[in-house]
Amino acid sequence: MTTHLRSDNVFINAPFDAGYRPIFDAIVFAVHDLGLTARCALEQDDSGEIRLSKIERIIEECRFGIHDLSAVELDAATHLPRFNMPLELGLFLGCRRFGAGNQRKKSSLILDREPYRYRTFMSDIAGQDIHSHAGDPERAIIETRDWLRAASSRSNLAGGAEIVKHYRRFRHDLPRICGALGLEPDTLTFIDLSDMITDWLQTSQ
Amino acid sequence: MLSKTLHVYRSISGWEVKKEGRKSRTFGTKRDALAMAVHQARNSRAAQVVVHRRDGRVAELRMFGMPKILKSPRKSPLRQRIAKAVGKVVMDRLRADSPRDHAPA
User: Using CB atoms within 10 A as the burial measure, which of A86, A99, A162, B45 is most buried?
Assistant: First the structure.
């Protein structure tokens, strides 16, 4: 793995189900507002490609990774934890450690809903960039912005408070945009959400 | 919050240059309107100039001191309809800001 890394691609490794959508949507918005591209395992729903192969390919292409471990908890029905997010985090860290060439430039932000909760289920990740969003989408935006500002060394980026204001305005407009398309804001596919965000940012900042 | 976007669009009076929350300026030609918008953008710390089609979609976009907004490498099957829906919401906002300037859509 040496040639496919894109310095403006950000892998979003986060739960996509209803309870976590506010955080997911906010992170995707912040990434696009910073002039970067959000990528996610859900960007191709119709592919016959094996899911893990698809995730590996996207990880290979992304210089940055944002990993939200909030969903690592016991499922109410199965009483088993969900481990897709830690698995994809492990792939990303492994790619940086063992990959060749520019794969070693990869950089990760790890988010959770409580500070230090990771110590009870994944203590070996201590020493990485680990921050808490406390389940607050606006805090997730600010954590994402501050980390990407430092990790990307870009200088002309909007501040966290400004991105939060953009996001509030986007959420205000979203029901009307979705209404014109016969869609529901809370059930948008990742690609549709991503297109709405970028089109909105091009006209509404 | 001060808007960073200068909109250039057609109205019943000609071509408008407008920032949301501010009065628009009218020009006889698109060329003159765009030149004024670009001039204002160049004198700002960060700005973008958006030329709209009649339906609100983006015909042209120029960035000044701002990061370019990048599209996802995967295209939505609704891409054109999304662009139109977003454009309509934006144009509705502009019309609500200064209704006398605008012809019906």
Answer: A86
